[in-house]
């Protein structure tokens, strides 16, 4: 069906080391990567069923900071949903998320993009530097208010994030 071919273009952004690649690879390949070259920027495709509808995700796993590569530029322009990821063990990465929101605003001026905020590494509870309530508050400031605490290591809440962004994209479409 045409619906089955519907592609959802998603971009994951956030500081180096927060676990963007680990989350994407857990979602797509069901395994935890101890190490993934932090300079590799690549896209991943995954078919799944979300709320009884087939969905085809095309996810750009970004690398590096806020500079633009040609691939990033193209994905930022065509992306339908954005996942803003920080590490719960690194407050700096939390404070930096606003920078990535500004980047989206710059590329997609005047558009209200679906956004989900993710606090990763929740398995490292004893190293936590950001409270759940702070993550939730930031999610409300930056986007629709959807906030998830994840662990790529334990595969905790990983599907919820990627299914969640598709749900947000669908909701925005229905509003139009
Ligand atoms: P990226 O630069 O944002 O793509 O981060 P990576 O996915 O390369 O992860 C950076 C480091 O954090 C790697 O050593 C990962 O193994 C580790 N890591 C990623 N996610 C988690 C997690 O949920 N829990 C723990 N304990 N470590 C993680
Ligand atoms: Mg990476």
H/E topology pattern: EHEEHEHHEHEH
Ions, cofactors and other ligands present here are: guanosine-5'-diphosphate, magnesium ion
Taken from the alpha-carbon principal axes, the silhouette is: globular
- Please give the count of helices: 6
Radius of gyration: 15 Å
**Fraction in helix:** 25-40%
| Class of secondary structure makeup | alpha/beta
- Low-pLDDT stretches are none
What can be said about the biggest beta sheet? 6 strands, mixed
Task: List the SSEs and their pairings.
Blueprint (H helix, E strand, L loop, with lengths): L6 E7 L6 H10 L12 E9 L2 E9 L8 H9 L2 E7 L3 H5 L1 H11 L7 E6 L11 H11 L4 E3 L8 H18 L1
Parallel strand pairs: 1-3, 1-4, 4-5, 5-6
Antiparallel strand pairs: 2-3
Main location: membrane
Subcellular location: Cell membrane
Enzyme class: hydrolase
Summarize the structure.
The chain is an alpha/beta fold. Helices cover 36% and strands 23% of the residues. The protein has helices at 20-29, 70-78, 91-95, 97-107, 132-142, 158-175, and strands spanning 7-13, 42-50, 53-61, 81-87, 115-120, 147-149.
Walk me through what this model shows.
The structure is a single chain. Strand 2 and strand 3 form a beta hairpin. It is built from six helices and six strands. It is α/β, with parallel strands linked by helices and 176 residues long. It is globular and about 45 Å long. The model has no long low-confidence stretch (mean pLDDT 93). 36% of the residues lie in helices and 23% in strands. The chain binds guanosine-5'-diphosphate and magnesium ion. Magnesium ion (MG) binds next to helix 1.
């Amino acid at each position: 069906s045409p619906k089955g071919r519907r592609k959802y273009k998603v971009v994951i952004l956030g500081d180096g080391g927060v676990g963007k690649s680990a989350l994407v690879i857990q979602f797509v390949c069901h395994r935890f990567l101890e190490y993934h070259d932090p300079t590799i920027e690549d896209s991943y495709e995954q078919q799944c069923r979300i709320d009884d509808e087939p969905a085809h995700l095309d996810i750009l796993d970004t690398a590096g900071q806020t500079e633009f590569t040609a691939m990033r530029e193209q994905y930022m322009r065509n992306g339908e949903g954005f996942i803003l990821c920080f590490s719960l063990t690194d407050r700096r990465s939390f404070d930096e998320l606003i920078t990535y929101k500004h980047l989206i605003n710059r590329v997609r001026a005047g558009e209200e993009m679906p956004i989900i905020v993710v606090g990763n590494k929740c398995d490292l509870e004893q190293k936590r530097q950001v409270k759940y309530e702070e993550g939730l508050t930031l999610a409300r400031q930056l986007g629709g208010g959807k906030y998830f605490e994840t662990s790529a290591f334990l595969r905790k809440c990983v599907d919820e994030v990627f299914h969640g962004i598709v749900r947000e994209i669908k909701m925005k479409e229905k509003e139009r």
